[in-house]
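[job 4417] fold queue: 2 targets
>>> target A
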Amino acid sequence: MKRKQITAMITAMTMVLGITACGAGNVSAEQENKEQTEIESTLNISNNDEITWSYDSQSDSWTMSVTCAVANPELPDYQGVSVNVPGAYVKGIDTNGDGKEDITGKTYSEEVNGRLVIDDSAKIANTNGQTYTASTAPVIINTGAAGYSAQENQKASSSNAAYGYINVACGNRGKQSTATDENGEEQETMQADYLIEPSPEQVMEELLPKVLRMKMYTVLLDSTASEHAARTMAMQIATDNANDLIQELTLIYNKSRQQAITNELLDIVGGSMS
């Protein structure tokens, strides 16, 4: 009877712990989904009322003002992005959210807030014999070597608009870029922050013996391979020396045999003459 009671208690505790763990997992998943939604909402330029567009009549293109490209920037002056779109792809700027162009290239006077109204049917045939639309236009991303040299934010260039290309300019944090933390101390922003589970100590406790065993095994394999390589080399050298010796002895033998034959012929010739 007691054994049945103990078994029932263990089963109940297991169920409670399982439910608790599932609850914690659900909370963690919900929190992760919430954070993901917030990031996507932050990076959605349609939700950014500070973005402005400027029109350049010489290149016939629209350029977006620099906006942050990450949700939580450490160095806003180096983590922005700007876009230049050929004017042929753009009907104008929608300033009131009705989906229709309120400002066009002809009526443009100053930077304006709003969204681009794209003309999907517009085409650009460039001097290279290529024809593009807004959906097929190549996108050129201008950026430095990420993680090495720093590059400040800048507006996208309109130099490729005539070819029908969409131009993107990005800022970059450099390898030595630093930011001031909440304690007022400067720290490098490119240092990787790794999350190790279950803990660094447990990971090292598991991995270190395996790494040492693998190292020792590798040393033994290298030693065995070196021994076989040395034997192979020694046999090859011995074979080469033996071949050389055979050639030398064969040459000496042929010379001796030829000398003996010559001597016999001379004796025969001398005897017949006498």
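>>> target B
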Amino acid sequence: MANRLTIILSSYNRPNLLRRAVDSCRTQVDRGFDLVIFDDASQEDTRQYLRSVQHDPMVSVLIMNARNLGFSASVNAALHAVQTEWATILCDDDFLDANFVASSRVALERSDKDCIVASFHQVDAKGRVLKSFTQQQQSLDTAQALAANLPIAGISGFFFRIGRRTDRNLMRDYPSSFFSDTLFAIEFMLANGVDTSADAYYYKTVWDQSESALDAHSARQFFEAMLRYREELASLLEHHGASGEIKSSLLKPMSLLHFTRVLLLPILARGALSRSDIDAWFVLARRYDPAFIPHCWLVSVAWLVANHRTLGIRKLAHRAYRRWIMRRPVR
């Protein structure tokens, strides 16, 4: 029986992690899948490993770009090589549970959607499980899917129905955004919604450079990326004729709670922020959403606390208290 699923494994300059990802494909209980590997012009150590697996019967196609094309163009090149109805993308720093293919088979056979999203385990750089995210088994239309705030992390763990598409250049080019994979997933959800799988799991690696561990400087870069992401997302929604409800849901800025967790707490924890960074925050906030101006005042307070940490918060509070006492009238 012909395979229904292709695993597209993306590679870029991480040979040890790539080896782990390939091994996770090799140890699948259900071997009923094709494997397409694309490498976006990595250095020689990565390409040497890829040449060593080139003739492995498990590898259907190996694409090694002569120059770096970026994620979007590389994915489109890999999609042209897909011969199955479904494809899933696996980033080289992630890896699959041994039952990933077997557990997804029922969902792939029953779904009438163009997109399915799997469950995942969040792991650290050493592969230790930090937290598990199990999808609630459900079928959502486009509006529900985009408003559901499903637990997802990057592009790994998504299944995309390729067989229905006549144009294999499925992914628009987003050269200025490192959220291009998120935009790709949204494109498929805009077609007819999404189904979720509670049974199929993969392992998602969380890095120090990821959103959950930003320092003050990279937090500013993250804010800039969010601004570009919203601009590109608005263009995508306009292109697909999305409803006003969907646009309103997707284009709203991050919440104060999310802002505090992602940006404010790292500043307090690390304390590396300059006055020029503060000024840049205000400029970015006005472009992102005027409602973020109060958020920037919070950053300013965090900067003040962080830069006076050596004095000690108690010492500052005590000094302020003494000044208040000295100004009180004597009775």
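[job 4417] complete. Note on B: The chain is about 45% helix and 20% strand.
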